[in-house]
Amino acid sequence: MEQAITCRNLHKTYPGKPPVEAVRGIDLTIYRSECFGVLGPNGAGKTTTIEILEGLLPASSGEVEIFGFNWQRHAFQIRQLIGVSLQETQLSERLSVRETLQLFRSFYQDGLTVDQAMQRVSLTEKSASWVKKLSGGQKQRLAVACSLVGDPDLLFLDEPTTGLDPASRRQMWEIIRDFRERQKTVMITTHYMEEAERLCDRVAIVDHGKVIALGTPRELIASLGAEHVIEFTTENLTNHEADFEWLEDMPSVDHVDRDADSLRMTVSQPHVVLPELIEQLSRRDQKLASLTTRHASLEDVFVNLTGRHLTADSEQS
Amino acid sequence: MNDRPHSPRLSPLANLILARLREFYRQPEAVFWVYFFPLLMVVALGIAFRNKPIEKITVDVVQSDRAEEIAESLATDARIKLEMYTLDECRNRLRTGKSDVYVYPHNAQAIEYFIDPTRPGSIVARDTVNRLIQVAAGRADPVPTVINEVNEPGGRYIDFLVPGLIGMGLMGGGLWGVGFAIVDMRIRKLLKRFLATPMRKSHFLIGVMASRLVFMIPEMILLIVFSHYVFGVEIYGSWLDIVILVFLGAMQFSGIGLLVACRAKTLESVSGLMNLVMLPMWTMCGIFFSYERFGPSFEPFIKLLPLTPLIDALRAVMLEGASLVSLWPEVLSITIWGLVTFALALKWFRWHD
Fold it and tell me: Considering only CB atoms, which chain B residues are within 8 Å of A101?
């Protein structure tokens, strides 16, 4: 398969006291017409990585190639081939949707018409509206339209759905799927595991500036060893420190994690574990406060690898 | 693939200029500050300085036998406002600036004047009072003289002021207009977003400068026309030369604005920098009064500042009818400032936050 992006041994250190090592040795290969996700908590180095690949930040060391070109010598060619949506750009408030797209279209040699771009993101009706009159979701769609208007082969999206309501988020996913169906390549960063699972062919899980897991969402979940998760709390969970070691000895249980307020078991056969669990709890006089079972997700993969949650306060200084 | 007929494809530069112009005229408050504020300033300053009342001379006379006689000899000059006080009161009034001079006729022969030599008004008052007293006592001037008062357009303060205000307007408009717009776009990450496209960096900077020129040339012409009809300010040189100077001045200060804003990350830091750059020019480059007052040792430095040649050239064209060809050193200086600051801004420009 033809490679869209390759980067080798990418490092980025921001000067300061002390210096911040945002990226510490990332290798990635992204193939043409794949949707590749970079999943990780805030502060993991996702934005730094994608901005280096977009040619917006210089790497401290390492190599980057986009469709075989490199940024030092072929920046102009690469920019004609890629579309970029930054994490937060405030487009000019007093320009209309059409005027904004006309401006961005004028920078590219070839591309969509402004009307096509508006159609792709369902903003045709808002064509004459000023940017400041748009809702958050519409603004975000316009931002993506600005990156589609040059008809790129490769689209970079940095947390495109952060802060959007569920309906706008689904709309954004539709836009990205539509782009994918045209045999084009997408690289997306997100801290929503659901987004990565639904959209991406392959996912790299990033933490503290390194890739800690890489594969298809299915492979990553399979790496847990068991595909189901049982999560429960008991009424007096916090009082008993070491009372749950017996969970690990139950049949079909692969792994147990304990938080301040809940227990999480990765299991392969929930129908075997559940009756046993309930019986054991009542035998020990533990009252269930809540219990849920679900398919394992990338979130569980992250928790399994780091002991932390993706979305909780996991920013590291 | 072509756009629909009503949205023709323009060049990136034309699109960038158009976008800036649209953003400007869709902001009514910005239009007000750009177009009406300079006019208000001309009105305020024009009224303040137009009919300067003839200055009064406050003269105190120490109460004594000869006080009446002195009062009579001074009564011939309408500018003199005369009052009589005791010696102590006179001394106090001079000290606190309430009078310009006091006259102490201390015996039959001599008259003493008490003045504050640091106050120009005080010296003028002494000379005037002394002349009147001497003439009343019988002094005749050996050479006959006639004084003619001149107050024609071209020589008044308002005529001097308008070219200064044009220069000041070009400086403020270029620096604030360009500087704030750039830093604002940097904060909004719009610059970074543009960097991610194949847009040429020079197109962007030229676009910002050019859109500024489009605002400023009509602004300055409005100001000149306004001061012509309201205050009778005449242009003795050519209109074309004025327009060319305004164009070059706007370009020069847009370039300086780009340079000042080329690294700044916040609006606070850019406004501090702009004030730092503008302050010496506000005070020294001859907007409100001639820079010759700073003395010959300062002049070479003042002439290096970018505002000085612009105002000098504007005054020469407007008041003296000079041609641009004769003003080539000024024109060259303005052009160099514009080009060099633009080139440096392009080189050092920070596109990221």
Answer: none
